[in-house]
Specification:
The chain has 166 residues and is an alpha+beta fold. It has a single domain, classed as H-NOX domain, CATH 3.90.1520. The chain is built from seven helices and four strands, in the order H-H-H-H-H-H-E-E-H-E-E. The C terminus is likely disordered.
Length: 166
């Protein structure tokens, strides 16, 4: 998706909460929403995204397929700012123990939004997920790296066992 996911999230959140919320997420000024709020917004956007963009989820049989598909080309959702969408890149690798390492080349707010979308997708697919942030631009890293473990015996689908810094 290389940024097109961000365009879909933006369109969904702007429809639901208005342009001002989206702009506040991307602002570097004081009062920027916390990562936990950005994560919640990403998670909250998933049900509307499944209705507005059903092919986004229908093309993947499970959460792992969805995460691995973050680099797929999807229909553009009419993002006003093409540079914003083009500035995001996703790459993944799988560790020997089966965890997915997802590299997100974007700022920390978009990283938190993606974490929320993954949690929302876990609920959609009825799966469990653990997300651990290994690297973050907040700490001076050049990208965000998430360690994602699927299928753990979490209390409920879509609940995070661990979210946060390494």
């Amino acid at each position: 998706m290389d940024g097109k996911l961000i365009g879909l999230m933006k369109a969904t959140l702007v429809r639901r909460y208005g342009e001002a919320l989206w702009e506040s997420l991307l602002t570097d000024a004081e009062g920027v929403p916390s990562d936990s709020l950005a994560c919640w917004l990403g998670r909250d956007a998933v049900p509307a995204m499944t209705e507005s963009y059903p092919s986004l989820f229908a093309r993947h049989p499970d959460l792992e397929g969805f995460i691995r598909g973050l680099g797929d080309d999807l229909p553009v959702a009419g993002s006003r700012d093409e540079r914003e969408a083009a500035a995001v890149g996703f790459r993944y690798a799988v560790t020997p123990d089966g965890a997915i390492l997802l590299r997100i080349e974007a700022d920390c707010v978009l990283c938190a939004l993606v974490q929320g979308v993954i949690a929302g997708a876990a609920i959609h697919y009825g799966e469990r997920v653990s997300i651990r942030e290994l690297k973050s631009p907040k700490r001076g890293d050049n990208a965000c790296v998430l360690q994602i473990t699927l299928g753990l015996s979490a209390p409920g689908a879509g609940q995070f066992l661990a979210v946060g810094n390494a």
